[in-house]
Amino acid sequence: MAEKHTADPVEIMRATGHPELEYAAGWTIAGLVTIGAIVAAWVFAI
User: Which keywords label this protein (predicted)?
Assistant: First the structure.
């Protein structure tokens, strides 16, 4: 019989990667997209 994992599957998925870097990258991308939209609206006089 196969053994079951004692950890919650959600915790297993969250345990990979670097949350701080992902958080910073997300905010950086969001900021660049926002600035790009403002510049595009200004340049094209939308």
Answer: Membrane, Transmembrane, Transmembrane helix
